[in-house]
C-alpha cells in the first residue's frame, strides 16, 4: 500500500497544532483527521481520535494491531505514516506554491448511474 497524496489543512490559530492531515492510499482510500503537532521534542503526528463524553478522554479512531509493541507490523506502519507526514510537511512549508485543494468527492465526474452520495463526506453510505 502506497501513500499517493498527503494534504495539509493548516491551523494557524492553534498553539501546538500545525495542521490537520489527510492521507490517500493507492488513490483509493482517504484517511482524514491526522493531526500534525509541535511539542517540546519536535514535530509529531497523532492519528484521528475523538473525545469521549463519558470520561472526557481522547480515544484513537485508527488502531494499529500490536501497535504498542515496538517491533510489530502495526508500530512500523504507524511510524512510516508519521515519517511520510513529517517529510511532506517539511517540503510543503518551504514551498512557495499553494497547497492542493481538499478532495470532496471520490470521482470528479457525476453520472446518473452513480449512487446517491452523503452530503458531508462524499461517501455512498
SSE blueprint and pairings:
Blueprint: E1 3-10, E2 17-25, E3 29-39, E4 42-46, E5 49-51, E6 58-60, H1 73-94
Antiparallel strand pairs: 1-2, 2-3, 3-4, 5-6
Short key terms for the protein model shown above:
31% strand, alpha+beta, Arylsulfatase, C-terminal domain, 1 helix, 125 residues, four-stranded antiparallel β-sheet, disordered C terminus, two-stranded antiparallel sheet
Short structural description:
By secondary structure, this protein is of the alpha+beta class. It has one helix spanning 73-94, and strands spanning 3-10, 17-25, 29-39, 42-46, 49-51, 58-60.
Walk me through the structure.
- This protein has 125 residues and is of the alpha+beta class.
- The protein has one domain (3-94): Arylsulfatase, C-terminal domain (2-Layer Sandwich).
- Helix content is 18%, strand content 31%.
- It has a four-stranded antiparallel β-sheet with strand order 1-2-3-4, with helices on one face. A two-stranded antiparallel sheet has the order 5-6.
- β1 (3-10) and β2 form a beta hairpin.
- Residues 103-125 have low confidence and may be disordered.
Amino acid at each position: 500500500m502506497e501513500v499517493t497524496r498527503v494534504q495539509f489543512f493548516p491551523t494557524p490559530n492553534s498553539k501546538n497544532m500545525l495542521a490537520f492531515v489527510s492521507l490517500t492510499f493507492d488513490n483509493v482510500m482517504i484517511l482524514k483527521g491526522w493531526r500534525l503537532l509541535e511539542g517540546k521534542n519536535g514535530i509529531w503526528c497523532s492519528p484521528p481520535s475523538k473525545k469521549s463524553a463519558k470520561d472526557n478522554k481522547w480515544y484513537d479512531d485508527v488502531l494499529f494491531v500490536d501497535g504498542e509493541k515496538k517491533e510489530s507490523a502495526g508500530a512500523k506502519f504507524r511510524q512510516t505514516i508519521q515519517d511520510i507526514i513529517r517529510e511532506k510537511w517539511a517540503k510543503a512549508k518551504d514551498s512557495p506554491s499553494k497547497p492542493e485543494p481538499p478532495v470532496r468527492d471520490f470521482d470528479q465526474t457525476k453520472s446518473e448511474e452513480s449512487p446517491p452520495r452523503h452530503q458531508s463526506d462524499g461517501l455512498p453510505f
